[in-house]
Amino acid sequence: MKITTIIFDLGGVLIDWNPAYVFDTLIPEEEKRKHFFENICTAEWNEEQDGGRTIKEANEIAIAQHPEWKEYIEAYYERWEEMLGGPIEETVEIFRQLKEGGNYKFYALTNWSAELFPVALQRYDFLHWFDGRLVSGEEKMRKPFPEFYQLLLDRFNIKKEEAIFIDDNLRNVEAAQNFGIETIRFTSPAQLKEHLQSLQIL
């Protein structure tokens, strides 16, 4: 079956986002910083915001559990824009080439807080190149849950056998594969370009 639809993850594929840009300086002690991310503002905690929980509620929960870390918990979202490192230019260029070719539909499927996604929309023009976007925080569901992939197909009338999904997160890639969507695990723009060329997409 011919590929007609290309689905991009955003963070780590098209957009560089890393809390280290703030916390390497804010908490210079490596062990203390490691403890913070493994026990307080964890990946799981952050994903609840991606799934629709408000930042206010997230902060209240974390501060109630770890009041001595209040300053750092609040900094996580107060300084969130500083964690945006900019576009991953080489991937954006691949997207540009594909878009200009006019042969595909493009969609974004992203785990992202609804409160913070407007910042990205203002900052990155290429987010407006998509034919549609599905933002987890707005839909109150997220990757890797199959209903989020199904919602994308239903919302935009996508045939999964005609789609390919690009994501840097192995968990999300495996979930898409299990759901029946062909995937590319993104590791670098050069690797993505080579894979797309091997499929005669680029």
Could you list some keywords that capture this structure?
two-stranded antiparallel ribbon, Rossmann fold, five-stranded parallel β-sheet, alpha/beta, 202 residues, 50% helix, 2 domains, 7 strands
Topology:
Layout: E1 5-8, E2 15-17, H1 20-26, H2 30-39, H3 43-50, H4 55-65, H5 70-78, E3 84-87, H6 89-101, E4 105-110, H7 117-123, E5 132-135, H8 136-139, H9 146-156, E6 163-167, H10 170-179, E7 182-185, H11 189-198
Parallel strand pairs: 1-4, 1-6, 4-5, 6-7
Antiparallel strand pairs: 2-3
Helix pairs in contact: 4-5
Describe this structure in words.
This protein has a five-stranded parallel sheet. Strands 2-3 form a two-stranded antiparallel ribbon. The protein has two domains: 5-16 and 86-198, Rossmann fold (3-Layer(aba) Sandwich); 18-84. Helix 10 links the parallel strand 6 (163-167) and strand 7. Helix 4 packs antiparallel against helix 5 (70-78). The radius of gyration is 18 Å and the shape is globular. The model has no long low-confidence stretch (mean pLDDT 97). The protein has helices spanning 20-26, 30-39, 43-50, 55-65, 70-78, 89-101, 117-123, 136-139, 146-156, 170-179, 189-198; strands spanning 5-8, 15-17, 84-87, 105-110, 132-135, 163-167, 182-185. By secondary structure, the chain is α/β, with parallel strands linked by helices.
Kindly report the CATH topology of the largest domain.
Answer: Rossmann fold
Report the top-level CATH class of the largest domain.
Alpha Beta
Q: Which ranges are low-confidence, i.e. pLDDT below 50, for 5 or more consecutive residues?
A: none
**Strand portion:** 5-15%
